[in-house]
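To the wet lab folks,

You asked to see what we're planning to order before we commit. Fair enough. Below is the target structure as C-alpha cells, and below that is the sequence we designed to fit it. If anything looks off to you, flag it before the synthesis order goes out.
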C-alpha cells in the first residue's frame, strides 16, 4: 500500500528542511570565517519545527482547496480533480458555460492567493517564532515578546518571495503537493529562517 499524501509530505518536507538548515549553518559559519562544523542541536530543532508545522499547513491547503476549488484556467492544467468535477458539472448544466467556470476559477485563485498572503502568512510566522523558541527552551512569555519583536521583519521578508510561490501553487500545483512544493521553493526561505533563529 503506497504511503498517504500526508506521510509523503512529512518525509519530503523533512528532507528539504534538513537541506535548508545545513545550508544555513554552512553560510553562517562561512561568514564568521570558521570551518564547517555541524550543529546537530540547531538541525534537530529546525527539523522538529518543520515536522510540527507540516500538519497545520497540509490541512490549511486542503481547506483552501475545498472552499475555493480549481485552477484559474478552465481545464488548462488537468491536475485538479476538483476542476475536472467542475468541468463535468458545467457540461451537464444548461445555465453554465466554460467562461463562467473560468471566472469562478479566477475568483477562487484570488481568494486562495489573498488568504495565503494574510491568514496563512500570520499562521506560519506565529508557528515559527513560537515553536522554534519553545524548542530552544524559551518560556511562553519570552516567546510572546519575541513574536512581537520578530513578526514585522519576518513578514516583510516573507512578502518578498511568497507571492510568487502562491501564484505557482494555486495555478499549477495539485493540493496534496503544495506543502512539499512550498518547502522546495522555501529552501532559501528555510535558510533565512534558520539564520534568523541563529543557527
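Sequence we intend to order:
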Amino acid at each position: 500500500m503506497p504511503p498517504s499524501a500526508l506521510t509523503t509530505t512529512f518525509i519530503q518536507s523533512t528532507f528539504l528542511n534538513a537541506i535548508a538548515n545545513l545550508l544555513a549553518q554552512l553560510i553562517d559559519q562561512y561568514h564568521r570565517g570558521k570551518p564547517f562544523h555541524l550543529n546537530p542541536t540547531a538541525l534537530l530543532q529546525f527539523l522538529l519545527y518543520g515536522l510540527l508545522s507540516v500538519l497545520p499547513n497540509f490541512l490549511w491547503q486542503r481547506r483552501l482547496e475545498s472552499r475555493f476549488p480549481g485552477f484559474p484556467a478552465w481545464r488548462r492544467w488537468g491536475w485538479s480533480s476538483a476542476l475536472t468535477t467542475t468541468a463535468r458539472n458545467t457540461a451537464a448544466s444548461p445555465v453554465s458555460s466554460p467562461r463562467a467556470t473560468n471566472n469562478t476559477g479566477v475568483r477562487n485563485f484570488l481568494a486562495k492567493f489573498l488568504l495565503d498572503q494574510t491568514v496563512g502568512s500570520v499562521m506560519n510566522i506565529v508557528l515559527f517564532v513560537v515553536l522554534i523558541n519553545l524548542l530552544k527552551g524559551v518560556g511562553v512569555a519570552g516567546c510572546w515578546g519575541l513574536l512581537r519583536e520578530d513578526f514585522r521583519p519576518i513578514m516583510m521578508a516573507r512578502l518578498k518571495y511568497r507571492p510568487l510561490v502562491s501564484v505557482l501553487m494555486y495555478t499549477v500545483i495539485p493540493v496534496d503537493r503544495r506543502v512539499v512544493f512550498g518547502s522546495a521553493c522555501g529552501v532559501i526561505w528555510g535558510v533565512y529562517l534558520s539564520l534568523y533563529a541563529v543557527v
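Structural context that might help your review: The CA atoms of residues 26 and 167 lie 31 Å apart. The chain has a mean pLDDT of 81.

Thanks,
Computational group
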